[in-house]
Design goal:
Layout: H1 7-20, H2 25-37, E1 46-47, H3 60-78, H4 88-116, H5 121-137, H6 144-157, H7 159-171, H8 175-193, H9 199-212, H10 216-240, H11 249-266, E2 269-270, H12 275-280, H13 284-296, H14 298-319, H15 329-334, H16 336-351, H17 369-400, H18 403-432, H19 434-440, H20 447-478, H21 481-499, H22 509-526, H23 532-558, H24 560-583, H25 588-601, H26 609-623, H27 629-651
Antiparallel strand pairs: 1-2
Helix pairs in contact: 1-2, 3-4, 3-11, 3-16, 4-10, 5-7, 5-9, 5-10, 7-8, 8-9, 10-11, 13-14, 14-16, 14-18, 16-17, 17-18, 18-19, 20-21, 20-23, 21-22, 21-23, 22-23, 24-25, 24-27, 26-27
């Protein structure tokens, strides 16, 4: 029998869930095959020790707690001192806020569990008192005076709660003896506060006696949530002092070890994929396409299934994130570990599902093979670019220690990654069926559309800043420093709005870093300068450099449309030559047409290396007078037709 969480166990659970949705046997077999193909890429993100048995069916609050604890642990497993960088202080806030959210979710989970079990209010109050006492009993022992003050404040705030718990216990069957022991221990604690005993031991004994009063039938169900709440509170107390000057690595190791032990104790698992998500992401059109692929081209089906499963897994994680702009300060910082897990998952997707080596096993005689191989290479570059964008923008937002900028960065990154995941899914499906791509991914923006959005955004910025620059030059010549300072600050606000826009992450990394350097430099000059006139002069120089950068960037973007049109004309001309070649298999005209086709098609090699590779293959076969000349020419023609279709779509 397989241990809980192993692949056969997960496959059986997925099969059961899929069958319950009323799918046909053919669909069920297809989805099982897809799960098998992606089993190597979709093992659980985090799994408990094999000897532990998962708990009963979990509630919604417990599911959210398990998911967030799993993502936080996955983040801690990949985190290291070398990755702190300039965000050392901010990572301390990330740790503290993440633990605070876990503590609150543990409390919500055990309250929800008590409501389901229909427990009276005094049981909830008893559990709250117990969790608070456990946390206080583990406070640093060297600060005894502060601990006495905290206990006095706690006692005065919860006096009514203690009375209600004692009254409820008095009415129960074994309650008289329990109330007598609790009253005696309360007196012992009060004496310890006045210095007549050890306060820590008294608090620990009081917590043990309160725990003994919990009804036995619910203690086993609620104990894991209480344990998690207790551990998280203890860890937050241990982090407070070391994090005064930034993150303290031994404290992080303590958090990682404690939470990992707790995860194993609870027997939880965090899968990358569940059957409901797979079923909802596989509509009938896509299932029919995959069934045809599985029937006629099994190697291509394996590549497509693995890639689609990984995309669905990442999209499920991205779409489960709440908008950061509407969240509080704690939730904004607590979302950072999940985004860093996403960064690791993007690299994992590029290395596993989109490994270009998968294309070596495809059938070279099919017309889609060359497109699939080229797509695998392009997808790896795109995923690595998204990975670098996520990491650099997140590091910058954390280093700035600005919660609003962090929220905008998280939301922009979430939208960018969702669009790019859908793009890759749509392009992969479109290789085999453009109609299915159009029906399933109609709202996914293409790379051309994203480039157009970025171009329009920079165009608007260009329309705002140069008119201001002319006025600022006049203020500089007249040495009108107040108006020059106001004008520069207004210009800086326009630049800052562009930097925080959703289009800013669409820039490639070198251009984005150059724009960030110039905008940050202007902001530093305007912030509390010692020599105001000199700072304003330097700011004007920096603004001129920024305008030159934007002008060159706009020229590069605007030049892409003529290049696309030129490549389209070349591809169409090459297709006409191929048709003529296929109609003239021999003779002098063939030599002339072959030479003309070579001269025409090689112009596409600058921006489409696949065309050049297919052209070279045909030339080698043609010069060797082999029988495979016409099939090789047909492959070049098929690629040029697909290229022409993509270029026409890019032009709109």
């Amino acid at each position: 029998m397989s241990s809980p969480g192993t692949q056969p166990q997960r496959l059986l659970l997925a099969r059961q869930l899929i069958r319950e949705k009323g799918l046909s046997r053919t669909d069920l077999v297809l989805l099982e095959d897809i799960l098998r193909e992606g089993a190597r890429d979709l093992e659980p993100l985090l799994e408990a020790a094999p000897q532990r048995v998962p708990a009963q069916e979990e509630s919604p609050a417990q599911a959210a707690l398990r998911r967030n604890l799993g993502y936080f642990l996955a983040f801690l497993h990949t985190f290291s001192p070398r990755r702190l960088g300039e965000s050392r202080n901010a990572m301390g806030l990330v740790m503290l806020h993440s633990l605070a959210r876990l503590g609150e979710q543990a409390e919500a989970a055990h309250r929800e569990l008590l409501a389901e079990l229909q427990q009276p209010e005094w049981v909830t109050q008893l559990l709250d008192l117990l969790a608070s006492l456990r946390a206080m009993s583990l406070a640093p022992s060297e600060d005894t005076g502060n601990l006495h003050h905290l206990w006095s404040a706690f006692l005065s705030d919860h006096r009514d709660g203690f009375r209600r718990v004692l009254t409820a216990l008095q009415e129960s069957e074994p309650g008289t003896a329990s109330v007598a022991r609790l009253n005696a221990q309360m007196k012992s604690v009060n004496r310890a506060i006045r210095g007549q005993g050890r306060l820590e031991e008294s608090l620990t004994r009081l917590a043990e006696q309160l725990e003994a009063c919990i009804p036995a039938e619910i203690h086993a169900r609620v104990e894991p949530m209480l344990l998690l709440e207790h551990v998280v509170s203890n860890l937050r107390l241990s982090l407070v002092r070391p994090l005064d000057r930034g993150i303290h690595w031994p404290a992080v190791e303590q958090v990682r070890g404690s939470l990992r032990w707790l995860w194993d104790h609870l027997g939880w698992s965090l899968p990358r994929m569940d059957a409901d998500l797979l079923r909802e992401s596989m509509p009938p059109d896509l299932r029919r396409l995959l069934q045809q692929l599985r029937l006629h081209d099994r190697p291509a089906f394996s590549v497509v299934a693995r890639a689609l499963l990984s995309h669905i897994s990442l999209l499920g994680l991205l779409e489960s994130l709440e908008p950061a702009a509407a969240a509080g300060l704690r939730d904004r910082y607590a979302a950072v570990p999940t985004f860093l897990v996403l960064e690791s998952e993007l690299g994992r997707l590029a290395e596993r599902a989109y490994d270009p080596a998968h294309g070596d096993g495809l059938d070279s005689t099919t017309p889609q093979t060359h497109r699939v191989r080229a797509f695998l290479r392009q997808a790896v570059l795109s995923l690595h670019q998204d990975q670098g964008t996520l990491r650099s923008l997140l590091q910058q937002a954390l280093a700035g220690q600005d919660a609003d900028q962090l929220a905008q960065t998280l939301d922009n990154l979430r939208g960018l990654l969702i669009n790019h995941q859908k793009q890759l899914m749509g392009e992969l499906v479109g290789i085999f069926s453009p109609d299915v791509q159009h029906r399933l991914f109609p709202e996914s923006p293409s790379m051309m559309e994203e480039g157009e959005r970025l171009r329009l955004r920079i165009q608007r910025l260009w329309e705002q800043v140069p008119p201001l620059h002319g006025q600022l030059q006049l203020h500089l010549e007249l040495q009108d420093w107040p108006r020059l300072a106001l004008g520069l600050s207004q210009t800086y606000r326009h630049l800052l709005a562009f930097r925080r826009s959703p289009e800013f992450p669409l820039m490639r990394r070198p251009d984005r870093e150059e724009a960030e350097r110039l905008i940050e430099g202007l902001g530093q000059l305007l912030e509390s300068p010692q020599d105001v006139p000199q700072a304003l002069r330097d700011g004007m120089d920096l603004l001129g450099e920024l305008l030159r950068f934007l002008e060159l960037f706009l020229l590069r973007i605007n030049a892409r449309v003529p290049l696309i049109r030129q490549d389209l004309e070349v591809a169409q001309e090459a297709l006409k030559l191929i048709v003529e070649l296929q109609a003239n298999p021999t003779g002098a005209d063939r030599t002339r047409l072959s030479h003309k086709l070579i001269q025409t098609s090689k112009r596409l090699g600058v921006r489409d290396p696949q065309s050049l590779a297919l052209l070279k293959r045909w030339v080698r076969v043609e010069r060797g007078q082999k029988e495979g000349s016409l099939p090789t020419l047909g492959q070049l023609a098929a690629h040029l037709r697909q290229l022409a279709l993509r270029l026409e779509a890019a032009l709109g």
